[in-house]
Design brief:
Cupin_1; RmlC-like_jellyroll; 676 residues; 43% helix; seven-stranded antiparallel β-sheet
């Protein structure tokens, strides 16, 4: 504040110097003018006397005016200084408030330390988090009414205070086992909604605390030969190994599950809509590899027409409900195909597409995986015909260009691009999905073909459910169109899958070697469980206050740990399965579950099953199983050889298990899939 004041004093002094310079300059000019007047009056004595008297009065009057202007200028400088002094005083008051607040916080911290030393640690969280205080500090800077450099100085002080507190908190959490225990127990209370599970969680926290205390005691006793690795909990320790669930209620914590409400309408009419899922890379750093992919859902009512448009993105389309006709227009040819549920077709960027739903009762729904070719993660539709929303791209061209290149009159051009002026009124066409007459629908569909798998080079629809399922039994079916068998998918490096899971059945745990799968629930409800090392690492880093370098050291000493990612699945939900992540899906007990999946980076992908009859663990030697699982090899073989079904298994539960499941809706699928 004082340095700011010194700057303001310098500004005032400069202002006064300018006033003095202006006064001196004006005074010199006035003296020069009087001198010129005196020379002109020489030789006329009588007039000179008269002029001398008047000129003297005028000179004195002018001198007074100049002096008054000079004084007014100085007063302006002083009034500015008073305003700046008020800003300085406000700045000093702000500094005093920050000092008092920091002092109170330090006293409170010392009081908490004293109470912990007496065994009476407070259970309450500090009401004011660092983030809240930082936000409040910035608001105070704005409320003070100071501007410019002073406000920036104030906000910089807030930032410095916030960074210091965050660093102090991390140091406290990292060094203080009691603080870790308190936070661990608080998480148990927040996350465990069943009393028995909460009590078990708190006991695990207490166990970890005793181990931390024991480790600290041995270090204080000077045992330098024992390193951090020996003090780290072994990998088998349950409290570290336990897979913490991410429930759908914990907003923002599960980046791999996106509810259907996150699909936002881009175009909507009375006859249908086009919805686009949010950009996946914006949800989490873990999804940066999916930045260029978007999920789009198109729905059209019965007896409707989707107007011609093209897109600056490659698309893989899957019919997820209904049937209809799709026409794809390129520069020198047009292809029209009849499409039905579970049909797949690709559309290259720039190809003009239009669709027809000629069914009298059922809506046509198409789910698309879109890969942008311009801006990563962004794409646009371009409509040849339009009105207000969407507009026709012809509207961007001048009437002169359109008249000459289309051989049309100005009136025809106006009607072509969807508007016709009538006085001050404009007539707008309906949106991009329109109702069509039966005659129009018949004309649009009469030349469409219905090819089904004409070979690897086919550009027509691939019917997933008309081909043999890749995996199948009484409890489910899995269909897949791979890039190895379909050139149009090979060019886009995508595979498409369709899963029909019977009610109460489980798709056994498995993982993909290379591909990341974006799945959408087409129909039904269910649950998913997935093991993820990345979320577990992030959670530990947040909870134990570890910096990035410390986290890397911890990985080398403790190995991988997994967090169980779980979610309830409903129609329209999307969930992500990253490559290498073991996953299992279970259908609800009262409805079948249908899902469509788009696998990116699909070339040379392999799917590995880790449960069920065909699990890959069976191929290990008995000695390898024994060494790996730390159990007798014969017992491990019995566990992995026991399942009698592959790929899909029923979820058989006794009454006791049924009651337990109602208490724990996200019960481990691994136990139900042959590991119990």
């Amino acid at each position: 504040c004082e340095s700011q004041e010194r700057g303001q004093q310098q500004q005032r002094q400069q202002c006064e110097r300018r006033c003095q310079q202006e006064y001196d300059e004006r005074r010199r000019e006035e003296q020069q003018r009087e001198e010129r007047e005196r020379h002109r009056r020489q030789g006329r004595e009588s007039e000179n006397d008269e002029m001398s008297g008047g000129g003297g009065d005028k000179g004195q009057s002018k001198e007074r005016e100049l002096r008054q202007e000079f004084e007014r200028c100085k007063q302006d400088c002083q009034s500015r200084e008073r305003g700046q002094q008020q800003q300085r005083q406000q700045c000093e008051r702000r500094c005093q408030q920050q000092y008092d607040e920091r002092r109170r916080e330090e006293q409170q911290r010392e009081e908490r330390e004293r109470r912990r030393g007496q065994g009476r640690e407070s259970e309450d969280e500090d009401e004011n988090t660092s983030e809240e205080k930082f936000a409040r500090c910035r608001q105070d800077c704005e409320r003070l009414g100071i501007g410019g450099q002073l406000q920036q100085l104030c906000k910089r002080r807030c930032q410095q205070q916030y960074e210091a507190e965050v660093k102090s908190e991390r140091r406290t959490i990292h060094d203080d086992p009691e603080e870790k225990l308190r936070r661990c127990q608080k998480r148990c209370q927040e996350q465990q909604h069943v009393q028995e599970r909460r009590r078990e969680c708190e006991q695990e926290c207490q166990k970890k605390y005793r181990e931390e205390e024991h480790r600290g005691g041995r270090r204080r006793d000077g045992d330098e030969d024992v390193d951090d690795e020996n003090y780290s909990p072994p990998r088998e320790r349950e409290w570290e190994e336990r897979e913490r669930e991410i429930s759908p209620r914990s907003q923002g914590e599960n980046p791999y599950h996106i509810r259907s409400q996150r699909l936002q309408s881009r175009y909507r009419t009375d006859e249908g809509h086009l919805k686009v899922l949010e950009k996946l890379s914006s949800r989490s750093e873990l999804l940066k590899g999916l930045e260029n992919y978007r999920i789009v859902v198109l729905e059209a009512n019965p007896n409707t027409f989707v107007v011609p448009h093209h897109c600056d993105a490659d698309s893989v389309l899957v019919v997820t409900r209904g049937r209809g006709t799709i026409s794809i227009v390129r520069q020198n040819n047009k292809e029209s195909y009849n499409i039905e549920c579970a049909d797949v077709i690709t559309v290259r960027a720039g190809s003009t597409v239009y669709l027809v739903n000629d069914d009298d009762n059922e809506r046509l729904q198409i789910t698309k995986l879109v890969t942008s070719v311009n801006i990563p993660g962004q794409f646009e539709e371009y409509f040849a015909a339009g009105g207000d929303n969407p507009q026709s791209y012809f509207k961007a061209f001048s009437t002169n260009i359109l008249k000459r290149t289309l051989s049309a009159t100005e009136d025809q051009i106006e009607r072509l691009i969807g508007q016709q002026s009538q006085g001050r009124r404009q007539l707008q066409r309906p949106g991009f999905i329109k109702r069509a007459s039966q005659e129009q629908l018949r004309a649009l569909t009469q030349h469409a073909s219905s090819p089904r798998r004409r070979g690897r080079e086919s550009t027509g629809p691939i019917s997933l459910r008309n081909q043999s399922p890749l995996y199948s039994n009484n409890y489910g079916k899995f269909y897949e169109a791979s890039p190895e068998d379909n050139k149009q998918l090979h060019d886009m490096d995508v595979h498409v899958s369709w899963t029909d899971l019977e009610q109460g059945s489980i798709f056994v745990p498995h993982y993909n070697s290379r591909t990341t799968v974006l799945c959408m629930v087409v129909e039904g409800e269910g649950e998913m469980e997935m093991a993820c090392p990345h979320l577990s690492r992030q959670r530990r880093q947040r909870e134990w206050g570890q910096e990035e370098e410390e986290e890397e050291e911890m990985q080398t000493s403790t190995g991988s740990r997994y967090q169980k990612v779980t979610a309830r699945l409903s129609q329209g939900d999307v969930f992500i399965i990253p490559a290498g992540h073991p996953i299992s899906v279970v259908a609800s007990g009262n409805r079948n579950l249908k899902m469509v999946g788009f696998g990116v980076n699909a070339k040379n992908n392999e799917r590995y099953f880790i449960a069920g009859k065909d699990n890959m663990i069976k191929q290990l030697e008995r000695e390898a199983k024994e060494l790996a699982f730390n159990m007798p090899g014969r017992e491990v073989e019995q566990i992995f050889n026991q399942p009698r079904l592959s790929f899909f298994v029923p979820q058989e539960r006794s009454q006791e298990e049924e009651g337990h499941r109602r208490s724990h809706p996200l019960n481990s699928i691994l136990n139900l899939a042959g590991f119990a």
